[in-house]
Design brief:
heterodimer; A: ATP Synthase, domain 1; about 40% strand; B: Pyruvate Kinase, Chain: A, domain 1; 7 helices; 6 strands
């Protein structure tokens, strides 16, 4: 029974993080979930939120993601995020630009799409608050 | 017989040309390294995406309620061809090979009675296709302001394609780009992106436990398909950028070598001519002295 697993965070442009973790908290589409080693294989889509990784050396790392998906199996967890932010100040400014865009899109959207877009904005705002 | 002065001028001009091509080669080499790094960095994401999508497509794709991006419209009457080329010239056969591949496909489609629409990325390919197929152009993506190919650019192209697809503007979308094999080899590649095709990798589809999907297989697929299309376009753009620099580098290497050869030849000619002039002058002096 292994008690660590491989964690990878990749964006389309580069690999952002690759480390050995004991647990990973993921903002899944249907609610946050914490993944431990030997998890059953799951693929889930993500909503905007924080990915929190507890490293094998006791450190924790946080990454803000705005969407994407996670592939989980017994030995590894991979988060594929279209936009992922590491660090503090730079990510805040980038993120607020992102929120503005999302708001605009929510205002333009209609019907079913409007609900989805507004949920997206709400998630983003929540994420901004969580980062403070 | 060109005069000494003419020869000297020509040697000078070829020398400065060689300097320019040499500099361009070095710039291309530096850019190539950056482009290759970018392509390398993008690989993990694209590979994962590909693996997940092929698994999903295999299980959901067969059912009736598969998304249209995957299943297509059920027709193949209108073809949209996305031709990716470079913004700048002097890169050897880079644009010509893509245009040749595209032209081949266009002629084939037209012969089969299909409707062809063309979207060009990069102006060089547009220029080359304009004369023959200008009436089929529907849009153009300008890349001249882009120094590094970013994912956002690919995402916006993908969005553009999806919008057109949703409006029923085309049934099948194919992209043309150069796949980077090595500095001297770039392979023109034709890839169908809509309806999406995912080749199931036999090694990967067998190994590993079957995945659970949250919220559902269909939900995940619907969420990921647009991203997968964007990823394919992003990969194509990166490969294309690397190919362009590779092609330019080898073209400029050839040009530098040719200039060197030309300088050698001209220098020999210059020396011989100078010798002939000196000999002539001597003969004149001697025969003048003898006449006295």
């Amino acid at each position: 029974m292994a008690n660590t697993m491989q964690f990878d965070l990749v964006s389309p442009e580069k690999r952002l993080a690759s480390l050995v973790a004991t647990q990973v908290q993921i903002p899944g589409a249907e609610g946050d979930m914490t993944v431990m080693p030997d998890h059953a294989p799951v693929i889930t889509t993500l909503r905007p939120g924080l990915v929190i990784v507890s490293g094998a050396d006791g450190s924790t790392a946080q990454f803000a993601v705005t969407g994407g998906f996670a592939e989980i199996n017994a030995e590894s967890t991979s988060v594929l995020a279209e936009h992922a932010f590491v660090g503090e100040v730079a990510s805040r400014t980038a993120l607020s630009g992102f929120v503005e865009d999302a708001r605009k899109r929510a205002a333009d959207a209609e019907g079913e799409h409007k609900d989805v877009a507004e949920k997206f904005v709400a998630d983003l705002v929540h994420l901004m608050e969580a980062m403070e | 017989m060109p005069s000494l002065k003419d020869l000297k001028n020509r040697i000078e001009s070829v020398k400065s040309t060689r300097k320019i091509t040499k500099a361009m080669q070095m710039v291309a080499a530096a850019k190539l390294r950056r482009a290759q790094d970018a392509a390398e960095n993008a690989r993990p994401y694209a590979e994962r995406m590909q693996a997940v999508m092929s698994g999903l497509a295999a299980s959901v794709g067969a059912t009736d309620n598969a998304p249209r991006l995957l299943a297509g419209t059920g027709r193949d009457q209108v073809h949209l061809l996305v031709v990716m080329s470079s913004e700048r010239g002097l890169c050897g056969g880079f644009n010509t090979t893509i245009v040749r591949a595209a032209r081949h496909k266009i002629e084939e489609l037209l012969a089969a009675g299909k409707t062809v629409k063309i979207l060009t990325v990069g102006k060089k390919g547009r220029e080359q296709l304009k004369r023959e197929f200008g009436q089929y152009f529907v849009a153009h993506v300008d890349m001249s302001d882009v120094k590094r190919v970013g994912y956002d650019r690919a995402a916006s192209i993908a969005q553009n394609l999806r919008d057109r697809f949703a409006d029923g503007e085309f049934d099948v979308c194919t992209i043309f780009y150069n796949r980077f094999v090595s500095v001297v080899t770039q392979e023109p590649t034709v890839l169908q992106v809509i309806p999406a095709v995912f080749d199931a990798d036999p090694e990967q589809s067998d190994s590993g436990a079957p995945y659970d999907y949250e919220p559902s297989e269909e939900g995940v697929l619907a969420d990921l398909l647009p991203r997968a299309v964007a990823t394919q376009i992003f990969t194509a753009l990166l490969e294309n950028a690397a190919s362009e620099e590779g092609s330019r580098m080898s073209a400029m290497d050839n040009a530098t070598r040719n200039a060197g050869e030309m300088i050698d030849k001209l220098t020999i000619q210059f020396n011989r001519t100078r010798q002939a002039v000196i000999t002539n002058e001597l003969i004149e002096i001697i025969s003048g002295a003898e006449a006295l």
